Each structure stands twice: as C-alpha cells, then as structure tokens.
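## tool: complex_structure
## caller: assistant
## args:
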Amino acid sequence: MKLPHLLAVGLAVSLLGGCSSWGAKPWQRGALARPDMQLEADPVQAGLEDHIYFSKEASSGGRGFGGGGCGCN
Amino acid sequence: MQLNDKRRALTAATLTLLGGAAAGPALAEERTWDIDTAVLVYSESGGRVQAVEPVIKGTLDLGGERFFTTKLIVDALTGASPNGATPASTPQTFSGASGGTGSYSTPAFETPLDDRFKDTRVQALVDYQFPVSANGKLGIGASAGKEFDFLSAGASLRYSHDLFQNNTTLSGGLNVEFDQIDPVGGIPIPLAEMQAADDSGPEDDPDGNGRDDGTTDSKLVTDAVLGWTQVLSPRSLMQFNYSLSLSSGYQTDPYKILSVVRADGEPVSYVYEARPDSRSKHALFGRYKRLVLDRDVVDLSYRFMTDDWGISSHTLDFTYRWYLSAHHYLEPHLRWYTQTAADFYRIALFDGEPSSIEFASADPRLGALDAWTAGFKFGSGQRDGGTWSARLEWYQQTSTLSGVPAQAAQGLSKFDLQPDLSALMLTLGYRFKW
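## result:
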C-alpha cells in the first residue's frame, strides 16, 4: 500500500476511533438534554430567519433543507 | 371544557389520520400538543418591503418516539421593491406587468421601485417521524404553498442513525419541490423590450408588451442533505452538513427588468431579465455549540455556498444565550454574510447588447454584497411550562458595484446605482403545551 493510502486509512480509523471516544456517557447528558442545547433550539424562529435571507440574498440551505415554497419576488 | 373537547377531537382525528388505531380514545386524552407560535414583523427603510409573517406549529408526541408535526405560515407583504432599472436624469415611467393599466413613475435620479408590490403567501406543512430500528429514525413530510401568482408542492424523506451511545448521529434527507408560476400578463419573453400594451405585437404577444400572453411556467427543486452530528463532551457538540440543491425550470423573476443605456448612462429602453433554466448549489455548514459557566450557551456556525451561476458566499453566525436568572435570558446575535455576483449579473445593458447575450439580470440579490445582522433576544420560561421571547434585529446590506457596461461606466457614475438596504426585524414567540 502506498503512503498516501496508508495515511488516508490511518486518518479514517483515527476519526472513527475519535467518534467512539468523544462524547458523553449516558449519565453525563444533563446539559446536552437542555432545550437550549438542541441543534435548533428555536426551529420556528430559524425558519423565519431562513425565509428572510432566502428572499434577500442568493444563498439558501446549509442547516437543513433550502428555502423555497415561495416566489419571493 | 369546550376547548378540551376540541383538543381531544383534534388529537383523535390526527391519530386516525396516521392509522394509529391502537391508540384508542383513552390514550388520546393523555396526549398533549407542543404549540410553538411566532410572528415576524419585517420593515425595510425608505418605504420598501414591509412584511408580517405569523407562524403556528404543533407537535404531537404519539409515544414510542413517534411525532406528528404540522405547521402553518402566512406571509403578508406590501411596499416597494427595485424593478432592476437604473436611475435616470429625467423621470421614468414603467408600463408595468399588467400592460398599459399598471404604469408607475420614478422621479429623476432615484432608484426605480415598483410600489405595487403586494402579496399574501400561505404555506402548510405536515411531518411524521417514527423509529424504524433501535437507532434509526425515519421522517416523511409534505408541504404546499400558495401566492396569487405562485403555487408550490413538496415532499421530503429523511433518515437519521445514532451510533456510539447516541454520541454520533449520521443523517440523510431528500426534498423535492414543484413550483408553478403564473405571472400577471404572462411569462416575459427573455430580454424582450418592455412596452406599454397596444395591438401591434406578434402572434404570441398580441398586445406587444414583451410578454407571452397568458402563459405559465414551472420549476423542480431537488435538495439533498448529508449530516454528521457529534457530541464532543458532556458540554459541547458539533454538526456538519453537506447539501446539494438542483433546480431546473423557470428561475427568472418575471417582474424584473434591466435598463438599456447609451454612453451617457441614460436609458433608451427596458428589457425583461433572463436567467439560466438550471442551477446547482453546494453548501457546507458547520456548527459548534457549547455550555459555558454551567449556565450560558454559545452557538457558532459557518456556511460556505457555491453554485454554477458564479455565486459563492460565506455566512458566519454567533449567538450567546446569557442567563440573567434561572428563567430569563438575553441573547445577543451577530451575523455576517458576503456573496460574489452571478456571472450574468448586470447593472444595465449597453445599447444593442440584448440581441447578443443569452442571460442578464439586474436583481440586486444576484449582485456582490455584504450584509450584517445585529440584535438581541429576550426570553423567559414560565412556571406553567410556557416560554416566550422577543427578538429585535437590524439588518444592513451593502452592495459592491459590479456588472457595469464599460461603454456607459462614465455616464452611469453620476447615479447611486446600488443603494444600501436596511431593515428592522421584530420576532415575538410563545410556546406552550395544549
């Protein structure tokens, strides 16, 4: 196996290994369970925000599905 | 009491709709809706767009990690929007979308605004999420939207899978949306001259106003998202998303025009804009969220987007939820955005140019621009479980001049070609159980 391949495999293994060693044990999840620690703590507000920026700028999407559902003329 | 009866009836109806026959009336009575409501008031300075957008979203916990969600959005817009034409040294008159009847005028040296802009949009969504294995969840959804000249219908499917004791979540989603547009006066002929209606036109445009009378068009938008969420520690997590959006069909704004100018920068005519009929957008999104001081929450995100129209953008977003007491918080918010212009973005066209090009648009949203949002939110949680919030924000958009025809650059330099846009946004929110 060539060196770049070895490096790629090494990186993938260490990333996956990282996934299993990062994180919180089930009894350490108090903070993560808080409503304000959810990825989208206020989804309705996020939806309104996406709609404004979709109407005023040329970008959309990223945090979820893109804008749309409007003509936004 | 009457309210409770209605709630039971609605809950039972929802369960029936979802085929939840096993959940009989006795069970249904225990279910509660999580109701999330908000209203956005959006106001641009200088008499431009004003909008009021109320939203109501209800989520019903059906037990066993099954959730039914429904959302209704109403969006009422009024005010003026730039029509794409450049200012001129003399007053300008535009014939308007509905032929000779809808004309409007712009004073000398001012940015032409179409002030007949008025619309109400209604959009409804339903969604059902349920587990398909010990670690896998599936979500299916449908949406429909209606404006006076626009109709959309969409469907979505998403799957998420938890790994490593729920510390890692991988997800994938697909959303397909079909939009139909039925513009006033018909679909404009690309780069055709906008004229007052008379009887001089060709067969497909008998009134000669540059629109293909009575026609409609459509587009299909397919969005795919791949996501990775990782818990980093008991106090922090991060999220990465890659999203692809493919759009094919009619993407032109049927009400936007461009000025055709002479070397002195004065208009000789106006033509309807024309955009390519396909667009591919790629976006990378990253977010970091952390609990600090065992009390406050920091949320930092970044998005890079690029598309095949030549637009690329960067967005940075930061909020800090600062708890003033156990139930009250103040949340400052800062957002910075920058984008490059679309390849076919033109502030105006030079005389004779429309016959030699395929695409052109003077829509300020497709030009190079920077934008800042700054504001704060104040929120409170009540003893009865309801929470409310109020957010006030200021949005400022500054354009960078681009797409100026070289032959008319000198002549156009006497005008303010891309005035800044500023807006105030107030969002009030209230969440409760029902």
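## assistant note: Chain A touches chain B through 43 residues (CB under 8 Å). The helical segments of chain A are 3-21, 43-56. Handing back to user.
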